[in-house]
Amino acid sequence: MKATATARWLLRKETVLRRVRGVRLVTVLAVGGLSLAVAAGCGKPPAKNASGGSGGGQYKACMVTDTGGIDDHSFNASAWQGMQDAKAADSSVVVQNTQSSSEQDYEPNLTKFVQAKCDLIVGVGGLMADAVTKVAKANPKQQFAIIDANVALSNVYSMQFNTAQPAFQAGYLAAGMSKTGKVATYGGLKIPPVTIYEDGFAEGVAYYNQQKHKSVKLLGWDEKSQKGVFANSFTDQNKGQSITKTFLSQGADIVLPVAGGTAQGTASTTAASNGKQSTIFVDFDGCVSASTYCKTFLTSVTKGIAGSVKDAVVAGQKGKPLTGSYIGDLKNKGVGLAPYHDWDSKVPGALKTEVTQIGADIESGKITVKSTAQPK
Amino acid sequence: MSSDEERPGGGPADPDGGAPGTGTETATAPAKRSGPRAAVPGDAKRTRTGIVIDALTTANTFTVTVLAIVLALAVGAVVIALSDQAVLDSMKYFFARPGDTFAAAGHAIGTAYAALFTGSIVDPETLNEAWWGMTSWSSVLSPISETLTYAAPLIGTGLAVALAFRAGMFNIGAQGQAMMGAIGAGLVGFMVPWPPVIGVIAALLGGLVGGGLWGLLAGWLKAKFGAHEVITTIMLNYIAAPSFVTWLVTQHGVQQPGRNDPISKAVEPNAQLPHLFGSGLRANLAIILVVGAALVVSWLLRRSTLGFEFRAVGSNPNAARTAGISLNRTYLLVMLFAGVLAGLGGASIVLGNTPNAITPSVVGSIGFDGITVALLGRGRPVGTVLAGLLFGALQAGAGQMQVTSQVPIEVSTIIQSLIVIFVAAPALVRAIFRLRAQRVGALGQNLAKGWNG
C-alpha cells in the first residue's frame, strides 16, 4: 500500500522528476546490491597464525631509522648495511626498514612493525630511546634492539659504542704526525655521538704532549669547557671546506671532522695539499666509503655499527636470546682504527707501535679515557 | 541527491563564507548574515541537479581542490610505480611483454594506496576481525587515531599561517613559534609537580605564551620598525631551533638526568594531554583543542570588529588606514594570535606523545607544513582544518605504505606538495579537466597579497 502511494506521488510529478526516480532506482539497487555483497563478504575470517614472527622459517628483521633517513652516510646507513649483511649471510633472514621524518614518527613506526609481526625490531639513534621503551613495555614478548642508547628492559638489546677509545689513539697519532704542532677537529652538531670523538681525540693529543713533553695544540674543541667549532650540518660540504681552510690557515695540518657528509669538504681541501695536510675520517674507513680521497686519509676511527647489527640479527635468527647491553670498544673490536692505507709508508714504525700499545693500554685499563660522553 | 527536495531553495552549505566566489563578499560587514538560510528566489528556476552539475564543472574552489588531489595522487602513482623494483625489473623487457610491467605497476600502486587508506582511515580486515571478536575495537580505531594525532599540530600551525594570510601577512615563522610553544609547554610541564587538570591547563598556557611572544616579536618589529615579517620570521625560526633550544635543553636543571643527548626532562604525567581512545592509541585532546581554535578564529574573522579590521588590512592596508584602522595594532595582534595558534600546535606535540620532552627536533617540520596546510585551506579556518586532516591522513598513511609495501616516505611528501602546487595553479587544473572559468576570480586572491603586504 505504501508502495502504491509512492508510485502515485511520483506519477503526479512532471518530467523533471522522472530522472530523479531513475536515480532513486539505481540508488536502491546499488545499496541493496552492496549490502548483499557486504553481507556475503563479511563472514568470519579464518584465524591467523597466532604465534609471533612471519612464519615459514623466515626471520624478519625490521629497522626504524631516525630522522636522518636511510642514506645519511652515518649510523642509519651503517645499521642498514648490517641488516643487509645479515641477509647475505643467512638466506632465511628478511629485512625491511621504515624511515622517520620527525620524532613524532618513532612510536607509530615501531608499533606498525609490531603489528607487521617482525621478529626483531631495531631502533636507530639515542633519541628513539623513549619511544622504544614505551613500545617495548607495551609488547613484552616482542624482541627489540636499539643503537646508541641503553634501554634497560629484558626484551631490548642495547648497542652502544665507545668511540672515545680509538679517537684517543687517533689523537696521539695526529699529534705525533703533525709537522706544524697544530691539529684540529670540528663537529656536525654538539651531541654526544659527535663530542665523544672530539673528547677522545683531545685526550690523545694531551697524552702525547705529556709523554713526549711537547705542546701540540688542538684547535676546534676544548674538552673541559665542552666548547668548539661546529658546522651545524651533516651534509654541507662547502661548510666543511670553509672551516677546514680556516684551520689550515691557522697552521693546523691534520683535521678530524666528525660531521657525516660535511667531512667530504675537509677531505677535498686537505687532498689538494699534496700530502702536507691530512684528514682523519670517522665512523667508516674513509678509503672505503670516500675512496676518491683515500690518499689524504691518515687513518679512520671506525664505529662497528654494521658488524654489531649483523651479529645481533644472526644471533636472533639462531634463536639466541637478545638481551642486556653491548658496548662496542677496542677489546671486542666494536670500534677501532682503520689501516693507514696510503700513509702506511709515511707513519714512522715507532709511532705505529706506540699507537698500538696505547690501544692495548686502554683495553687493559692502564689508560683511562675520561670523556663524559662515553656509554655506561 | 534525494536530499535536494528536502531543502528547497537553501543556498549551498557555506560554513565559513568561503564557498565559491565569495572573495568579494569579504569586503562587506560581517554582521550581515542574519537568520537561518533565507531562501534565494533566483535559484528557484534552476533545478538542484543542474546547480550541482554546474558547480562541479566550473573551476570553483571545491572542484579545483578535489581535482588537485586527484592529479597529485595520479602523479604519485607514477612515482610509486617507478620506485618499485618489480616494475623496474619487468621494464627491461617491456617491448617483449608489456603486460608484465603494467601488472607490476598496478600491483605496486594498488598495494601502496590501499596501505595509505588502511593506515589513515580504517582497515576493513581489522574491522571485520573486530566484528567477530577476533581483535579489539581499539585496533580498528588505530588508523584514525594516527590521522588525528598527526593532524592536530598541523591544524594549529596552519591556522597561524592562515590568520596572517587574511591580514595580508605571510607568516613563515610558524616553525619557530611552534618550537617556542613546545618549549613553553615543556618547561611549565616539568618544572612543577602539578595536580591533575590544572597541570594540563598550565602547560598549555605556557605553550600559548611561548608561541605568542615569539609571534609578537615579529609583529613588533614590523609595526615599530617596518621590518618585513617574511624576513624576521625566517630569522626567528633559526634562532628558536636549533640554536636556542639546543642550548636550553643541555642546561643543568633542564636536561634529562642520565642523558647526554639534547633532551629535556619529561613532562609531568598530570600535565600531559589526556588520550581520547584509551592509552593504547595516540590520539589526544589536541585535536579537539585545535578544532575549537579554528572555530574561534572563524568567529573572530567573520563576526568580530577586530576580525573585520584584520581582513580590511589584508584587502587594502592603505584604505584601511584611511578608514581609521591602526595598522600597527593590527600587525601586533595578528602576529600575537598567529604565534599563540602555532604555539598550541607545538605544545600539543610535547604534551601529547613520546618523548613528552623538549628536543631540538621535537616539532619536526610542522611550521613549514602549516604553510602548505593554510594554502590548501585557502586561508580559511574550516578549510585549514580539512586540509590539516588530509595531510595528517597522508602522513599517517605514509608510515603504513612504508611498512606494507616499502614505498619510500618521500612519496607522501611529493603528493602533499603536488596538491598545493595544483591548488596554487588553478588555471592548470582547469585546462587539464576543461572546466569552465568562474566569473569571479576569487581563487587565491587574498593569499597572493602576503608577499607585498
From TrEMBL, chain A:
InterPro entries: BMP_lipoprotein, Peripla_BP_I, PnrA-like. This is BMP family ABC transporter substrate-binding protein. Residues 62-346 form the ABC transporter substrate-binding protein PnrA-like domain. It is found in: Cell membrane. Keywords: Cell membrane, Lipoprotein, Membrane, Signal. It is a lipid-anchor. Belongs to the BMP lipoprotein family. It comes from Actinocatenispora rupis. GO terms for cellular component: plasma membrane. The keyword DNA-binding does not apply. Its main location: membrane.
UniProtKB/TrEMBL annotation, chain B:
It is a multi-pass membrane protein. CDD domains: TM_PBP1_transp_TpRbsC_like. Its main location: membrane. This is Nucleoside ABC transporter membrane protein. GO terms for cellular component: plasma membrane. Keywords: Cell membrane, Membrane, Transmembrane, Transmembrane helix. It comes from the Bacteria. One of its GO terms (molecular function) is transmembrane transporter activity. The chain crosses the membrane at residues 62-82, 102-122, 147-165, 172-192, 198-218, 230-249, 283-301, 331-351, 357-376, 383-401, 413-433. It is found in: Cell membrane. InterPro entries: ABC_transp_permease. Residues 13-31 have a biased composition (Low complexity). PANTHER family: ABC TRANSPORTER, PERMEASE PROTEIN (PTHR47089), GUANOSINE ABC TRANSPORTER PERMEASE PROTEIN NUPP (PTHR47089:SF1). Residues 1-43 are annotated as: Disordered.
